[in-house]
Predict the structure.
Amino acid sequence: QVQLVESGGGMVQAGGSLRLSCAASGRTFGRTFSGYGMGWFRQAPGKEREFVAHIAWSGGVTLYAEPVKGRFTIFRDNAKNTVYLQMISLKPEDTAVYYCAIDKRGSAWTDLTQYDYWGQGTQVTVSS
């Protein structure tokens, strides 16, 4: 079993910042899922879950959805099996439940159907 624990969500005013964290754990996680990719997705009320950002195992390759480019930064600490999403210049349209996910093969990128494990989500609310 793999567990993902998210934290860092909250309520901020437009223009504010938040940093989300997601830590992965499991009895055989390190051996089984070495080389995995990690990503962030979000789902706003009445909308489908959408891709936000992805980071490869090496940390050297990242991919962002167009609406968050230049404002969000994804990074990871493999020793802690943790991925982060630093969000600045937040807008009301960023309001959503944010989910982290693991891609054990490291090839899913923007395709949410190819991610293997998901967190429970953390709420981000940006007020005007």
Remarks:
- DSSP finds one helix and eleven strands in the chain.
- Residues 66 and 75 are 17 Å apart (CA to CA).
- The first helix runs from residue 29 to 32.
- Helices lie at 29-32.
